[in-house]
Write a structure and sequence with these properties.
Elements lengths: L13 H4 L6 H15 L5 E5 L15 E6 L2 H10 L4 E4 L11 E6 L9 H13 L1 E9 L12 E8 L4 E9 L7 E12 L2 E12 L3 H11 L1 E7 L10 E7 L1
Parallel strand pairs: 1-2, 1-4, 2-3, 4-5
Antiparallel strand pairs: 5-11, 6-7, 7-8, 8-9, 10-11
The structure holds S-adenosylmethionine.
């Protein structure tokens, strides 16, 4: 089965999979951290793996944002939603813009980092873009301790052209490795009838202590901010790294 079609030829469906209002609650926690650590002002922030820019859309009225994503198709969604943001195509493990920011953010896109080596490279990207005393914030969807799959979720949304039902089954095929798997189905009703597509996403799963250890190794002091935003009420944190 092909992988990550959601961020490629199916990216035009993103606004029917996920909408800015779904992120209002989460964005409040991000804003609280940024304000607590940076103080008042329209600070320069940088999001890696911005996707459709839904979470970022709640921050742009208060911060000056720059954003990167691997997928040009997903950036199209974010550009439409966030016209004041400077967007670039890039890989969070390797991209270097040659600029520094007060904060680097990686929202749920961090879940696409699958190995400890790639986590180290991603954290090095954050450090390369941070001013002294800069702040790094990230939010893995799951930690090894908090994943209790398998689980199924679904939603139906429509616009004037398309009705999309999105079904996601998430499970852990091998509890001894650092990944889990999502199988997705898209039931797409358009003028010419119902079409069904499938997709597969592999995402990372690491113990909380691994995150903390790798962030400390990269040069951060680490804080875990409670992040109770998930419907299943699982334990969740914003991981906040303060550059020494
Ligand atoms: C779930 S979406 C992010 C949605 C985003 N939080 C929002 O509010 O719209 C995940 C994004 O991560 C991006 N991504 C995955 N691996 C990446 C990498 N190595 N570097 C940059 N972006 C990456 C994908 O292209 C996708 O757009």
């Amino acid at each position: 089965m092909d992988v990550n079609r959601m961020y490629d030829e199916l990216a035009y469906l993103w606004p029917l999979i996920s909408a800015p209002e779904d992120y209002a609650d989460e964005a409040r926690y991000w804003k609280n951290v940024l304000r607590a650590k940076l103080g008042p002002g329209r600070h320069a922030i940088f999001e890696l793996g911005v996707g459709g820019g839904n979470n970022l859309s709640h921050l742009t009225s208060e911060f000056q944002a720059t954003a990167v994503d691997l997928s040009e198709q997903m950036l199209k969604n974010s550009r439409r939603l966030n016209p004041t943001v400077e967007h670039h195509v890039g890989d969070m493990r390797t991209v270097r813009l040659g600029k520094k920011f007060k904060a680097v953010l990686i929202h749920d896109a961090i879940s696409y980092v699958l190995t400890e080596d790639d986590l180290r490279r991603t954290l090095a990207t954050a450090v390369a873009h941070l001013e002294p005393n800069g702040v790094f914030v990230t939010a893995p969807d799951y930690f090894r301790e908090t994943f209790h799959g398998p689980s199924v979720s679904h939603s139906t949304r429509s616009n004037d052209r398309t009705e999309l039902t999105h079904i996601e089954y998430i499970h852990d095929p091998d509890p001894n490795d650092t990944t889990i798997e999502s199988i997705m189905f898209y039931l797409i009703r358009e003028n010419d009838g119902l079409r069904i597509e499938q997709d597969r996403h592999i995402t990372g799963l690491f113990p909380i202590q691994t995150w903390v250890d790798l962030m400390v190794e990269t040069g951060f002091t680490v804080e875990k901010w409670p992040y109770p935003v998930h419907e299943d009420a699982r334990e969740s944190y914003l991981l906040v790294g303060l550059l020494k």
